[in-house]
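User: Second chain of the day. Same drill as before.
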Amino acid sequence: MGEAMGERVIRVLIADDQPLVRRGLALILAPDPAFEVVGEAGDGADAVALAHRLRPDIVVMDIRMPILDGVAATGQLARELPGCRVLALSTFDMDEYVVAALRAGACGFLPKDSSPEELVAAVRVVYTGEAAVAPRLLTRLISTYVRAPRRALPPAAHMGELTPRELEVWRLMAAGLDNAELAEAMDISVSTVKNHITSVFGKLSVRDRAQAVIAAYESGLVEVGGQE
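Assistant: Same format as last time:
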């Protein structure tokens, strides 16, 4: 399989230590011609090995697995197969392991009690290169589990390279505003917001919105408890 209605089929690898969960996820995705479930893994080590062999576009990765957990497996994939994007799965939506997975390179996360429609939408979003985490939930997660260091660490060292407008975009992004809300707050167009965000990512050397928000808290740009 390679094309679906003129578009490239999204190749998905599913990693979860529970066979019923793996099968359920596959049954949700497989009937859609936009997806091809290329394999299933029962632990993080197997997921990494299969990803190297099968080269999926997306790995739907349970965070807590035996042998090699999903956080470590995500970090390994981010280093070794940067073109392979990870959608992390968690039993709970407020979970410090979710933040660890995002820091390691996951492009989004989904609670396991999400609907089939939410799973399909999240895989599509991650495939496009966006972060599949609702901005306000992302901020709640990170403000709960990320603690700023006593002195700024990289990428805080790059804060001086940001223009005042980019710094404000970064600050509002960390406050949980989505692109449309950013545009309204700053009285600029959504396309201009996207350009600023791309520049912020490049200057901070982060992959996506999730890592940018984590960096905002770790650098001290935003204080824990300072945002709703």
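The mean pLDDT is 83.

User: Great, on to the next one.
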